[in-house]
Amino acid sequence: MLVLPENTGGPNTSVAAVIGDPVSHSLSPRLHNAAFAALGLNWSYVACHVPKGQGAQAIEDMRTLGLRGLSVTMPHKGEVALAVDALSDTAKKLGVVNCVRVEEERLIGENTDGIGFLDSVKSQMGIEVDDLRVVILGAGGAARSVALTLAENGASVGICNRTEESALELVEMVGKASSVVDEDAVKDAELVINATPLGMNANDPMPIDPSLLQNDPCVVDLIYKPAKTALLEEAESRGLETLNGLGMLLYQAGEQFRLWTGEEPPINAMAESVGISI
Predict the structure, then answer these.
(1) What is the CATH number of domain 14-111+248-273?
(2) Helix residue ranges, H only, the chain
(3) Which residue intervals of 105-177 are DSSP H helices?
(4) Ranges of each domain in the chain
(5) Across-strand partners of 155?
(6) Averaged pLDDT, 177-200
């Protein structure tokens, strides 16, 4: 059961929350509370630990408690997609939800990860993705969101994954200009994205052989802790432009803020709260 921390605000305060297991590491409270403060909104945002398997119950608790917004992180994204009243087109295609908004008395599942990535690379790297040759390493939830958004915005997307079956499933879902590729496709890519967990731990192998970075691609690692993975360090040593996943987190939170409040997110204040320069 979702239990809100004490002192989240007065009786007229709108409350939003993030659920996950674990969730204590989440930067979302910092991002959203900075946004509410910047605009003087009577909102509060809290982190709630919800054990694995209790995502659907958390949606019912959201109704009971009258929460005005919910962020959803692992491992609840798929379960929540089945528990809400309706899904946005993007969330329906992906089968996962990372945001729930209230529309009258209905709970609508959204997915803001893809638009968060797109806004991040446009703002932080100056990249326009139309006709861009992209290779995504991995085929999990983050890869799905990013691949779908990139393809819908005109990029040519190659999926390189250790398990070909998962890559084929992703290509079938994305359609458009997407295909299953092997590591050699990295040689011709203009943008390379690591959407695997490789790099989170110091002893992890690199997700690709860095010698394949031959076309001076921009390199993005969706990991943001550590801030600089071995892949990003190697790419920088080759003079390539790099970016970690903190910007994606920032901009997807901004889109959630917009969905909940109807206000334009104060991105600069949100970025400052987590130490990003934009």
Answers:
(1) 3.40.50.10860
(2) 28-39, 55-65, 77-83, 89-94, 113-125, 141-152, 164-174, 230-237, 246-261, 267-273
(3) 113-125, 141-152, 164-174
(4) 14-111+248-273, 114-244
(5) none
(6) 96
CA atoms of 13 and 7, how far apart (whole Å) = 11
Residue with tokens 């334009």: 264
String of DSSP letters for 220-257: EES--SSSS-HHHHHHHHTT--EE-THHHHHHHHHHHH
* Nearest CA among 109, 14, 110, 106 for reference residue 68: 14
220-258 pLDDT, tens digit each:
999 999 999 999 999 999 999 999 999 999 999 999 999
**Which one-letter DSSP state was computed for residue 263?**
S
Q: Does domain 114-244 have CATH number 3.40.640.10?
A: no
In whole angstroms, what is the distance from residue 195 CA to residue 162 CA? Answer: 12
**Residues β-bridged to residue 208:** none
3-state helix, strand, coil in the chain (%, to 5): 40, 20, 40
CB 107 within 8 A of CB 100: yes
Q: Quick one: which of 27, 99, 31 has its CA closest to 59? A: 99
Structure tokens at 58: 């958390």
| pLDDT average, residue stretch 89-100 | 95
Six-digit token string for 35: 């946004």
- The residues that are catalytic are 77
Cis peptide before 197 (omega within 30 of 0): no
Label residues 12-47 b or e (16+ Cβ within 10 Å = b).
Answer: eebbbbbbbeebeebbbbbbbbbbbebeeeebbbbb
Is residue 82 within 8 Å of 54, Cβ to Cβ?
no
